[in-house]
Amino acid sequence: MGFKEDRTENSRDDWETPDNLFANLNAAFKFHVDVCATADNYKCEHYYSEEQDGLEQDWSEYSGAAWCNPPYNKAKEWLQKAQREADNNGVTTVCLVAARPDTKYWHDIIFRHARAICFIRGRLQFMGAKWKACFPSALVVFSPAPLEYGQIKTLAGHGQLVVGGLTVRVEECTAADRREGNASA
Q: Model pTM?
């Protein structure tokens, strides 16, 4: 098998979220349901399997934030569903998707409706993968309400963050900076 085949692993698009990325985001968003999972890769106690089809479910039944790492060949459908859940049911959803801002669905769904977009620094290495992904990734947040400071700071810690059309830089400051009033965020 050549290098290209090794890296793409037969073009799979159902890779499991890296545990460290999920744990960090979960600490900030407190996910109640993984809306696009299998019995082998779910990240939350409550999850919708392929058989349950999260696209057909009401995500608000778990009354909390939702996590979504969809198969990338169906990203558009999952992003549309996340937007509808935020608009109609008050569900905040964080989606892990391929960063493809040149596509129509990015312009029609993400850029128009997302509360926040974080272009992840570097390439992710998904669980079970031999190599890092051969494409950049992004975290896309759909939410009915403004994000909390801790959520914004967590997202910004993963890469370049855009919130409401504004680029956000969260810089670390020391305790001395805070005492002197030099803290910036």
A: 0.81
**DSSP strand E in 77-136: where?**
93-98, 116-120
The residue whose two tokens read 């959520």 is: 151
- What's the CATH code of the domain at 169? 3.40.50
Task: Tell me how far apart the alpha carbons of residues 168 and 143 are, in angstroms, rounded to a whole number.
Answer: 17
Hey, which bits of 28-110 come out as E strands?
31-34, 46-47, 65-68, 93-98
Beta bridge partners of 31: 65
Distance, CA of 35 to CA of 68 (rounded, Å): 6
What is the residue range of 52's domain? Answer: 3-180
- Domain presence at residue 92: yes
**Has residue 185 been placed in a domain?**
no
What digits encode the pLDDT tens for the residues 8-58? 444 555 665 777 888 999 999 999 999 998 888 888 999 999 999 999 999
Closest CA to 61 of 33, 19, 92, 39: 33
